[in-house]
Amino acid sequence: MVGDLSAVVFDHFYRASVGSISGTGLGLAIVQKCVEIHHGAISVTSELDRGSTFEVSLPLSDEGEQ
Protein backbone atom coordinates (compact mmCIF):
# COMPACT_ATOMS: atom_id res chain seq x y z
CA MET A 1 0.00 0.00 0.00
CA VAL A 2 1.25 3.43 -0.81
CA GLY A 3 1.85 5.55 2.27
CA ASP A 4 -0.06 4.55 5.38
CA LEU A 5 -3.33 3.35 3.92
CA SER A 6 -3.86 0.89 6.76
CA ALA A 7 -5.92 3.60 8.48
CA VAL A 8 -8.42 3.83 5.59
CA VAL A 9 -8.32 0.37 4.00
CA PHE A 10 -11.24 -0.78 6.21
CA ASP A 11 -13.42 2.27 5.35
CA HIS A 12 -16.65 1.65 3.45
CA PHE A 13 -16.23 2.11 -0.32
CA TYR A 14 -12.44 2.59 -0.11
CA ARG A 15 -10.63 1.14 -3.11
CA ALA A 16 -6.91 1.20 -3.73
CA SER A 17 -5.56 1.58 -7.25
CA VAL A 18 -6.09 -1.99 -8.47
CA GLY A 19 -6.22 -1.51 -12.22
CA SER A 20 -8.98 -3.47 -13.93
CA ILE A 21 -10.04 -5.52 -10.87
CA SER A 22 -13.70 -4.77 -10.19
CA GLY A 23 -15.25 -4.31 -6.77
CA THR A 24 -17.30 -2.04 -4.57
CA GLY A 25 -14.86 -1.33 -1.74
CA LEU A 26 -17.09 -3.01 0.84
CA GLY A 27 -15.31 -6.34 1.38
CA LEU A 28 -12.81 -5.35 4.07
CA ALA A 29 -15.37 -3.16 5.86
CA ILE A 30 -17.73 -6.16 6.06
CA VAL A 31 -14.94 -8.47 7.25
CA GLN A 32 -13.90 -5.96 9.91
CA LYS A 33 -17.49 -5.68 11.20
CA CYS A 34 -17.88 -9.48 11.35
CA VAL A 35 -14.61 -9.82 13.24
CA GLU A 36 -15.66 -7.10 15.72
CA ILE A 37 -19.04 -8.80 16.30
CA HIS A 38 -17.14 -11.93 17.29
CA HIS A 39 -14.85 -9.91 19.63
CA GLY A 40 -11.81 -10.42 17.42
CA ALA A 41 -9.24 -8.21 15.75
CA ILE A 42 -8.03 -7.66 12.20
CA SER A 43 -4.77 -6.03 11.14
CA VAL A 44 -2.86 -5.40 7.94
CA THR A 45 0.82 -5.23 7.07
CA SER A 46 2.00 -4.25 3.64
CA GLU A 47 5.17 -4.06 1.57
CA LEU A 48 5.35 -1.95 -1.57
CA ASP A 49 5.57 -4.14 -4.70
CA ARG A 50 5.18 -7.30 -2.56
CA GLY A 51 1.59 -7.19 -1.35
CA SER A 52 -0.45 -7.04 1.82
CA THR A 53 -1.12 -9.54 4.58
CA PHE A 54 -4.32 -9.44 6.60
CA GLU A 55 -4.38 -11.19 9.97
CA VAL A 56 -7.65 -12.10 11.71
CA SER A 57 -7.69 -13.19 15.36
CA LEU A 58 -10.85 -14.65 16.92
CA PRO A 59 -11.31 -15.81 20.51
CA LEU A 60 -12.08 -19.48 21.08
CA SER A 61 -14.95 -18.52 23.37
CA ASP A 62 -16.39 -15.46 25.10
CA GLU A 63 -15.61 -15.15 28.80
CA GLY A 64 -18.78 -15.46 30.84
CA GLU A 65 -21.01 -16.69 27.99
CA GLN A 66 -22.21 -20.25 27.70
Can you give a write-up of this model?
- The chain is α+β, with helices and mostly antiparallel strands and 66 residues long.
- It is built from 1 helix and 2 strands.
- It has one domain (5-57).
- The chain has one helix at 27-37; strands at residues 41-47, 51-57.
- The chain has a two-stranded antiparallel ribbon.
- The protein is globular and about 45 Å long.
- The N and C termini lie far apart (41 Å).
The helix tally amounts to 1
Measure the end-to-end span. Answer: 41 Å
Number of domains: 1
Low-pLDDT sequence parts: none
Average pLDDT, to the nearest integer? 83
Biggest sheet, open or closed, and with what strands and sense? 2 strands, antiparallel
Which structural class matches the secondary elements? alpha+beta
Q: What fraction of the residues are assigned to beta strands by DSSP?
A: 15-25%
Q: Estimate percent helicity.
A: 10-25%
What is the string of helix and strand elements?
Answer: HEE
Top keywords for this entry?
alpha+beta, two-stranded antiparallel sheet, 17% helix
